Amino acid sequence: MSVEINGTVSDGWEPLVEKFASNFDRFSELGASVCVTYEGETVVDVWAGDRDAEGNPWLEDTIAVVNSCTKGAVALACHLLADRGLLDLDAPVAEVWPEFAHGAKATVTTRMMLNHTTGVAAFRDELPEGSAFDWDYMCDRVAAEEPWWPPGTRNGYHLMSFGWVAGELVRRASGLSLGTFFREELAEPAGADFWIGLPATEHHRVSPLKPFRPGEKEEFSAFTRAFIADADGLQARAWRNRGGAKGDSPEVWSAELGGGGGITNARGLARIYQSCAVGDFVGPQQVERMKRVSVATERDAMLLLPTRFSEGFMLRMDNRKSFGGDTDSVNIREGAFGHVGAGGSIGFADPNIGLSMGYVMNQMGKSVLLDARGEGLVDAAYLCADQQL
């Protein structure tokens, strides 16, 4: 191994660590961590590489922005509230957020707020710079936005708007801000170093993300081609019109951005899903809703590839053998649920075998979903788990 691997690994899980090490040689991994829990015990917790371009090492407590892995954390909060009887996922959203349910959105249910079918996937009119850091303003904009398609007729990934579409449900049902509820009711009980709104006192631990730089003959995804081709299209408005919630700045780290601003490491991701994996998080009926397909399509209106979602979570989407173009995938197994983050991170639970996993890195890949690094780690984790049976 050309990179020093730090941390711990249990007997039988060494192949996963070997795959993790190989990512540094084969795929120019810069700094990263991977963690797996199995039947309630941590069996892999390792980290390696550099936390920044200056060569400072990735440490045990290094954390990084995990982009849309944050959506999984928001979904966990919603399902916890539903399990407690504080949020009815089958009720009209008008009962929780009447300002949202007007015009074409009058029939939207809370379930649709989680499965990317409301149609409020982007903002047409330009958001003022810095508006993403004003929660009330953004929720007013979400409520006023006309949907890009009749709600419930199709699904299209709500790239950043999900943070307010679903996050406001948490605030209204709990009476707490999204970041506060998540920290007090999920992260702290799980012992997870995971934040939606990172205190300034913790900023020194953040590893900045290194953007993906395409090669000369790079083949882009359909999503990327679409936002390059049409500046006023859905993809371009979702990607570029974010009210200042771009980049990797201290202002972004401190904000409660439920669509993609969460900050953690692999251990934090694995721990928030651990109780889901062993059946201690919510009741079995709620777990079934987290595992069950709520919407699936051959062509997601936003991502322009086949997707499958439960209520708030990504499910198995294995497009690696696709002959139709994009091969971006989420190669977890049937019955597992979680979420990837742009650039390649992932956190998920597989209650069928009692496994949870997190992978966080600072060198972003080009894929909308997982790339070869994360796919290889997920495959290796499953192979190791199979050997335990």
Question: How would you sum up this structure, described in words?
Answer:
- With 389 residues, this protein is an alpha+beta fold.
- The chain has a single domain, classed as Beta-lactamase.
- It is 32% helix and 13% strand.
- The protein has 13 helices and ten strands.
- The strands form three sheets. Strands 1-3-2-10-9-8 form a six-stranded antiparallel beta sheet, with helices on both faces. A two-stranded antiparallel ribbon has the order 4-5.
- The longest helix is centred in the C-terminal third of the chain and has 17 residues.
- It is globular and about 60 Å long.
Task: Give the H and E element order.
Answer: EHEEEHHHHHHHHHEHHEEEEEH
Largest sheet: 6 strands, antiparallel
The helix content is: 25-40%
Mean of pLDDT: 95
Beta-strand content: 5-15%
CATH topology: Beta-lactamase
Question: Total strand count, please?
Answer: 10
Second CATH tier, the architecture: 3-Layer(aba) Sandwich
Strand order across the biggest sheet?
1-3-2-10-9-8
Low-confidence stretches: none
Please, how many helices?
13
In short:
With about 400 residues, this protein is of the alpha+beta class. The protein contains 13 helices and 10 strands. The protein has helices at about 15-25, 70-85, 110-115, 135-145, 160-165, 165-175, 180-190, 220-230, 235-240, 250-255, 265-280, 285-290, 370-389; strands at about 5-10, 30-40, 40-50, 65, 265, 295, 305-310, 335-340, 345-350, 355-360.
